[in-house]
Amino acid sequence: MSSCWEDDIMPEEQPSQPESSISLLQDGKWHEFIFNGYQPLASKPINVCYYIPQGQKTSTMRMLFILPGESRNASDHLKIFIDWANSNKVMIFALQYSEQYYPSTTEYILGGMNTKQSATGLLPREQWSFNYVESLFDELKASTNSNQTTYDMWGHSAGAQFVHRYVTFMPQAHVQKAVACNSGWYTMPDLNATFPYGFSPVEGADSDMQKTLLGRQIYVFVGGDDTSTVGLNNNPGSVEQGENRNQRGHYYFQRSQAIASEKGYPFNWQFGEVPGVGHDPVGMAKGSWKVLE
């Protein structure tokens, strides 16, 4: 099925692109569709809310994938970025792993690696819901005749947990920039620490994966006032990272930087603190989207 562009800005023909089953609109409004294009999890589709700015060919626009917090309100998070998308001519897509198919917060934030916060019961890689991201990217490239080879990611709270673990455990993913804001706790790039606080015993989680992660363009953001402990994971592995999200973000960045230094690996991460902002996706978006421009 070919894509529909209501403002007659048609993508250029690129015969090498596979045919897409998605029909997208570029009409100045946001829309949504259901995507089940990752075959091993086709019975557990995701919802995708999207917005495509007018006035430019889709074939040349960058893509940003947005991961919402625990409430998984993808449309609300998408709307936060619409003005920014218009200014920067970026196609934005907010991914919703609905509670209908992904009922627990743990399953969401661990990208389907496990349904519990444990090193036991880890699922095979092909069953990880992380895989939907690359499948969606491939489908969108075909639908828009895109010349883009990478995409960016932005997540807040539970979405930030998804994002930072995605770039950790999916080393082949075509992510250019990954922004994680106000994550509640983190998986450290530590080969010896036990999952979900480290790499062991995840299949394929070795020094090569560690080096790839530390060399990525990752932006860790915390709100200067995100110091509440309400609803936080207070398991020992999380408490070791700090008392609140602000402290834990500092710890994650500093510990990762130290590991890179110890190993002699390139370290391309950046850290940012947004003054006066608590656990608020709007404030964090405004304080962090500069790095995505």
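Next protein, fold it too.
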Amino acid sequence: MPRIPATGTGSPAVPAPPGEEPPATLLPAPPGGPRSVTHQRAARRLLALLDDAAREAGAEVEALPAVAVRLPDGFAVPDLVVADAAAVRRAAAGAGAALDARDVRVAVEIVSPDTRVADHTVRPALYAAAGIPQLWQLELAPLPLFRAGRLRRGVYEETAAALGGFAVRVEEPFPAAIDPGVLTRSR
């Protein structure tokens, strides 16, 4: 099976504990600042779809946008994560600064032109090294494309893919039908 790359959106602002240096940031924020309208639209729609599907399945997870994830060598901020609900509650009750990678079931990245190189090379390696079991990507251009990958032997292998206009069904961490065209098109 082909390997699946991943993407991300900048670096978190995670405070250092008292008396310690600030944590390392693995990837700086991309040039150009805020994400495109299409990127934000897709992220918002996918988050709503994941929330609805998780609730319908009774899955003990929570989908979150742009949350810091603690990796072995620093932090990363995927566009979305699906994380263990109990871990999210613990993080929110404490400082709430970051989730541990071990509590993330899916990292979701929306591939942007300004982060494409890191999206396809650096982030998959970081997430794999942290043991995040699934990596999903949504390519915005030239055509909407969704790809899901599962971590196997240290790399993400593609398990599902669909172009815009075609829905793909994922079964883990809960069943969901994802059509990348619906996520990216104007109303």
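About the second fold: The longest strand covers residues 155-163.
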